[in-house]
């Protein structure tokens, strides 16, 4: 049942003018207006989707850039550490780990020197050095001899230190190279007065410690050469 504006019942076949007008307006609305409205809704939805995609791309870019930056920094720190280690190792190799303590003592007779003694200590800031026949070579040379290793002809006395084979900070070891030993000259030493002799202490780490002196013009049983 349909009712009119005055509250009276209308016939089912009677359609109000207002309803007819609304139906006609909806049916005859221009297509281009409807399409524009649809396009606006699509545009707004696409704009929202584009903004979300942009945000995701930016987040992915930031994460990737952060990972790359971390990798570069980590590589840089590793390279710096390795460079520091190489430099430190080079400095240790170029600087002698050993140093001479005091003067050099020559003992013998008035006609020939028989042995040479010098005291060694660890250089400041150096790591302990192992002194043994397997880790250290002692070379000797003079105008008549040139020997690469006379360790077996050398007596080592621990003046100050413990009983291990490490020369440690605060310790002092005396090295006596026996010229009259069979490994060098034997009973007759041909090293004459004013001749220069050269002793090298060659540890596994650090530079070679070199001891070089000249035999005095006049020999005495005990002589100290500074």
Key attributes of the depicted protein:
rod-shaped; 2 domains; five-stranded antiparallel β-sheet; Immunoglobulin-like; alpha+beta; 226 residues; four-stranded antiparallel β-sheet; 13 strands
Report what the structure shows:
It is rod-shaped and about 105 Å long. The chain has a five-stranded antiparallel β-sheet with strand order 8-10-4-3-13, with no helix packed on it. Strands 7-6-11-12 form a four-stranded antiparallel β-sheet, with no helix packed on it. The chain has a two-stranded antiparallel sheet with strand order 1-2. It contains two helices and 13 strands; from the N terminus they run E-E-H-H-E-E-E-E-E-E-E-E-E-E-E. It is of the alpha+beta class and 226 residues long. It is 33% helix and 30% strand.
Write the layout of secondary structure elements.
Layout: E1 2-3, E2 9-10, H1 17-27, H2 31-94, E3 98-108, E4 113-122, E5 129-130, E6 137-141, E7 146-147, E8 154-160, E9 166-167, E10 172-178, E11 196-202, E12 209-214, E13 222-225
Antiparallel strand pairs: 1-2, 3-4, 3-13, 4-10, 5-9, 6-7, 6-11, 8-10, 11-12
Instruction: Estimate the mean pLDDT confidence.
Output: 79
Task: Pick out the low-confidence regions.
Answer: 11-24
Strand content: 25-35%
Superfamily (CATH H level) name of the largest domain: Immunoglobulins
| Count of the domains | 2
CATH class of the largest domain: Mainly Beta
Compressed to H and E, one letter per element, the order equals EEHHEEEEEEEEEEE
Number of strands: 13
Class by alpha and beta content: alpha+beta
What CATH architecture label of the largest domain applies? Sandwich
Largest sheet: 5 strands, antiparallel
Query: Span between N and C termini?
Result: 136 Å
**Which of globular, elongated, flat, extended, rod-shaped describes the shape?**
rod-shaped
């Amino acid at each position: 049942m349909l009712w009119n504006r005055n509250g009276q019942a209308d016939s089912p076949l009677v359609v109000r003018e207002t309803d007819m007008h609304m139906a006609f307006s909806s049916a005859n609305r221009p297509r281009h207006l409807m399409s524009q409205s649809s396009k606006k809704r699509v545009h707004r939805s696409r704009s929202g989707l584009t903004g979300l995609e942009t945000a995701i791309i930016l987040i992915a870019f930031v994460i990737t850039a952060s990972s790359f930056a971390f990798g570069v920094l980590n590589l840089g720190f590793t390279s710096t550490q390795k460079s520091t280690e190489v430099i430190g190792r080079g400095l240790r190799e170029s600087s002698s780990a050993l140093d001479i303590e005091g003067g050099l003592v020559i003992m013998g007779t008035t006609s020939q020197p028989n042995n040479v003694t010098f005291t060694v200590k660890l250089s400041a800031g150096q790591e302990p050095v192992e002194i043994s026949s397997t880790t250290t070579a002692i070379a000797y040379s003079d105008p008549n001899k040139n020997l690469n290793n006379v360790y077996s002809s050398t007596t080592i006395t621990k003046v100050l230190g413990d009983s291990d084979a490490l020369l440690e900070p605060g310790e002092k070891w005396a090295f006596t190279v026996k010229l009259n030993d069979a490994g060098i000259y034997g009973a007759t030493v041909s090293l004459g007065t004013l001749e220069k002799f050269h002793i090298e202490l060659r540890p596994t780490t650090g530079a070679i410690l070199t001891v070089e002196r000249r035999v005095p013009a006049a020999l005495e049983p005990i002589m100290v050469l500074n």
